[in-house]
Structures are given as structure tokens and as C-alpha cells.
Amino acid sequence: MSFIYLIDxxxxxxxxxxxxxxxxxxxxxxxxxxxxxxxDGEEKPSWESEWxxxxxxxxxxxxxxxxxxxxRAVDVFGGGAGAGAGNGLCLDALETKPDxxxxxxxxxxxxxIGLGVTLSLEADGVWLYNRSSEPVFVSSPALDAAAAKxxxxxxxxxxHCLCIFDPAAPPPPRCQPHVGPVDPRSVRISFAKGWGxxxxxxxxxxxxxxxxxxxxxxx
Length: 219
Description:
This protein has 219 residues and is mainly β.
């Protein structure tokens, strides 16, 4: 499967606060902690045949357990009619912790996820395809490795795709000024809501529904 041949569904774009954002282009500087947030003892001794693991978050609370991915493509989707056609991680099926933040903004955002996103391992890297009717926002150190700048947040419109990790690109510095330690194999994806200096959400952990993608270490 190659995203080069995917058809733009021409879905409506709902831009939150920033009308000048360019689809699939850098939008905001992100000066946030960048190491993986999922360090709760679930890591396995080896990745076996997994090429990535997924962790779903609602604000600062992780919901459910890590989801290991072995197939070359995985769908991450919400509930509701039509979303169940995906094969992968259904966010509505995850077990919610008793102290999880069941607040209105989480409920409203989660209801918009719908078909969500597809993550695909291709010969030229890892690609994200936005299948939902809302934009998604992506932060990946690999996207700005060549520039070696502070991490940026990229906006991906409905029906569009973005290479979120290119193994051929030079690795970013392990530590960046004003940012601190960087995990070059950790990608963060927020559904519908952006974050950064141009938003009132300055940190990804302020986003109602977001996904952490932890890529397997190189073999």
C-alpha cells in the first residue's frame, strides 16, 4: 500500500483558531518535554516483531494499555457508525481508568475522531493518513532533523497524508536548546485540537485526545 495513490476525499476542513495553517506543513514551535511519557513498566525485553507501539491519552491520563503493532498498516479510530470498519485500535473500546478525566472537552473531541488515522510502515518511512473529518496535529523530531531546530507541530488536514518518520534522514540532536532530551523515535498526534504558542494549549498534555507512537529501535 502506498499513500501516493490515495485519493483526497475533499472533506471539510475545520481549523481551530489558526486560519493560516498550511496542510502538512510546519505551523507552531513546540518547546515541551519530548521523551516518551509511557514509562510505567510495560516495556518488553525486546520488541519482537513489533515496529511500533501506541499509547492513547486523554489530557494527562493514559487510557488503556500499550498497543503493539506488527502489521504494516494500522487504523486508529473512534466508535460510532462506520468507524468499526477499521482493523486496529478502537479508542472507544479501551478500558477507562476510574480516575480518567471524563470531562466535556474530552467527550466532544473523542466524538469527532470517527475513522481517525492510518499509520503505515513503507519503504521510505512511516506515513500518517488522516481519514477523519477533522485535522490532526503531529509532532515528530524526525520532521525537522535536517534543520536541527526546536520541535514543530504540523497540521494534517482531512484526506491528507504526511511522512512522520524518515529513517534516511539525519537523526536530530539528542538534546536541543530550551527543549531538553529528545526521543527521536517518539511521535505525538492530537485529534482535532492543536497545541503550541499560537494556541491556548501550550502542551500536548492539554489536548483532550492524543496518541503517542513509539517506534521500535533500529535493528
